[in-house]
């Protein structure tokens, strides 16, 4: 697998007092969050609560108005972009292209931060791309053109591209959006099986229950972090999402399921 | 590796053959063997006995013309590739974005003010005009709506082109003598008639340097495939690369415009054709487009001299006649790709 293991002593990614203001609108307000090595941390919240904004700030794609992001032991803004990209990969929500690029070349883009004039494309890079394709079960797509792929296949290729960066950390922004249910589950299973630290924004609360921990955003503020069942309480769902909810137990495997009604 | 060497040699061969054809074909055809003998005489004093008029035509008129055409075509096609990749817009082209119009205004201003009408000062004026035009167009596109809609910057480019063309016309009417005005208007349509060796020494190095800078950044250009956020997450210093490469494109465009006027559509037609033939990775696309642009403009120049007997059509007219239908095809193709 494409993974680099590291000592478990420090947080993989941490932000303190992170905020973003655009004109007078506060998109994100004083968020303190720590992503532990090896965990899958889910971010949930209603539309417009700042999930994508938080991911963009954590990835260094936007500059915060205040606060600090710490990647491992370094301040994110002091690291060169290339160094960040070697440690942290991002899967955006539905990044598309009109170019007639083929799948192998799209995944090969993930090697960009590792290549330079002095270190050209090598057999190792080729093997890493092959491995990344295999990891997302997309080896058979390698020669297909991007335009011919379905939404689920495209998302898998994006994840493969991110894996080809050989990151320690993977940030995903609602990767299951607009996919049919089979592909949603496939992508989630895939992401959770990856041996990298994962931060994932999710829309579906039942899917979010499968994360190690959850962070809840509400109008740009982080209102709770913790194990899913402790965080997504009926009170929280009422307060943040404005829905009535209670848990059912799946007789098939004993898992907890959220049953949600509009209040 | 050997494959790319072979491809490089084939590319050079194709370019040499095209230049040879460009020199040989014309109102008075000159046999390719004579062309080669002239080159041999000039390059290593081979001492072939030739008609001095033929020799003059080949060396001072046709060869310079073919070389400048090749450099311009290569430069403009390279600019097209870079603009399309960085702006994520298949219709981006120095001409359509108003960069050429801005360069024309800058060059005309310098020429009319008589600020030392050398090739370098003309180019500098054109460069300032090109940058000003692109800045205006980019600001207008940003102010007019969501940054990613492809139509926006093209509309802004049309507005920019119109504005700078009007400025140019105003400058000419206000300050140029009738004779100057005629010359400038002919040059504006794209014209290779006046080029001599000094133009070659400006156009060829600039085209090669521009290509080299872009090829050096080929991986960065590849990384923009899925947009600038994606490029940033792949470790590209997005703003720095954009400023550098767009300035480079503006400079190449400006130099070409100051030598031959605003030739449109090369930067649009050639990159699209080359993507179909060689795929999207810039390591191949950039050299292929430069070569394709060179061949295209040499061919367009030959056509412009031979299509109507005794008349020279501005080469920009030929490229537009080819380019406008391709523009339409791209528009239609985009709809069906959705």
TrEMBL record, chain B:
This is Iron complex transport system permease protein. It is found in: Cell membrane. The chain crosses the membrane at residues 63-83, 95-114, 120-141, 153-177, 197-216, 243-270, 312-332. GO terms for molecular function: transmembrane transporter activity. One of its GO terms (biological process) is siderophore-iron import into cell. It comes from Pseudomonas putida. The keyword Phosphoprotein does not apply. Belongs to the binding-protein-dependent transport system permease family. FecCD subfamily. One of its GO terms (cellular component) is plasma membrane.
């Amino acid at each position: 697998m494409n993974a680099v293991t590291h000592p478990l002593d420090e947080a993989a990614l941490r932000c303190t007092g992170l905020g973003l203001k655009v004109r007078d609108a506060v998109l994100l307000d004083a968020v303190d969050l720590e992503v532990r090595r090896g965990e899958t941390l889910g971010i949930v919240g209603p539309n417009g609560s700042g999930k994508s904004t938080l991911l963009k700030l954590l990835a260094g794609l936007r500059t915060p108005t205040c606060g600090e992001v710490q990647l491992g032991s370094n301040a994110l803004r002091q690291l060169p972009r290339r160094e960040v990209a070697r440690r942290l990969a991002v899967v955006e929500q539905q990044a598309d292209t009109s170019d007639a690029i083929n799948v192998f070349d799209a995944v090969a883009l993930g090697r960009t931060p590792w290549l330079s004039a002095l270190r050209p494309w090598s057999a190792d890079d080729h093997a890493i791309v092959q491995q990344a394709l295999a990891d997302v079960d997309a080896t058979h797509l390698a020669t297909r053109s991007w335009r011919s792929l379905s939404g689920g296949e495209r998302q898998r290729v994006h994840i493969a591209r991110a894996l080809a960066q050989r990151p320690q950390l993977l940030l995903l922004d609602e990767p299951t959006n607009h996919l049919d249910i089979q592909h949603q589950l496939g992508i989630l299973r895939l992401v959770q099986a990856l041996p990298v630290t994962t931060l994932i924004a999710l829309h579906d609360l039942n899917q979010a229950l499968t994360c190690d921990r959850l962070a809840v955003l509400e109008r740009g503020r982080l209102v709770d972090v913790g194990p899913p069942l402790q965080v997504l309480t009926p009170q929280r769902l009422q307060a943040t999402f404005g829905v009535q909810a209670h848990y059912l137990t799946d007789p098939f495997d004993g898992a907890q399921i959220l049953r949600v009604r509009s209040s | 590796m050997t494959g790319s060497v072979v491809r490089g040699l084939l590319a050079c061969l194709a370019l040499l053959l095209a230049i040879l054809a460009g020199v040989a074909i014309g109102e008075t055809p000159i046999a390719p063997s004579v062309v080669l003998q002239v080159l041999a005489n000039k390059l290593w004093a081979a001492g072939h006995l030739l008609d001095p008029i033929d020799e003059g035509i080949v060396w001072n008129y046709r060869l310079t013309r073919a070389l400048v055409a090749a450099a311009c075509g290569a430069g403009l096609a390279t600019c097209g590739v870079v603009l399309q990749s960085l702006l994520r817009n298949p219709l981006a082209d120095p001409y359509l974005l108003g960069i050429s119009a801005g360069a024309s205004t800058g060059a005309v201003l310098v020429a009319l003010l008589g600020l030392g009408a050398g090739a370098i000062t003309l180019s500098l004026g054109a460069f300032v005009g090109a940058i000003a035009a692109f800045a205006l167009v980019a600001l207008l596109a940003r102010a007019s709506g969501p940054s990613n809609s492809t139509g926006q910057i093209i509309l802004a480019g049309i507005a920019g082109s119109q504005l700078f063309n009007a400025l140019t016309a105003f400058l000419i009417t206000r300050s140029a003598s009738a004779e100057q005005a005629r010359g400038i208007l002919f040059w504006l349509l794209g014209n290779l008639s006046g080029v001599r060796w000094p133009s070659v020494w400006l156009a060829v190095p600039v085209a090669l340097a521009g290509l080299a800078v872009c090829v050096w950044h080929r991986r960065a250009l590849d990384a923009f495939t899925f947009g600038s956020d994606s490029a940033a997450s792949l470790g590209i210093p997005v703003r720095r690369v954009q400023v550098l490469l767009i300035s480079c494109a503006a400079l190449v465009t400006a130099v070409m415009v100051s030598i031959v006027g605003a030739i449109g559509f090369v930067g649009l037609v050639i990159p699209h054709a080359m993507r179909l033939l060689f795929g999207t990775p810039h390591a191949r696309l950039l050299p292929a487009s430069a070569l394709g642009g060179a061949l295209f403009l040499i061919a367009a120049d030959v056509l412009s001299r031979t299509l109507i007997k005794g008349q020279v059509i501005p080469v920009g007219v030929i490229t537009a006649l080819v380019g406008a239908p391709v523009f339409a095809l791209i528009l239609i193709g985009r709809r069906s790709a959705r």
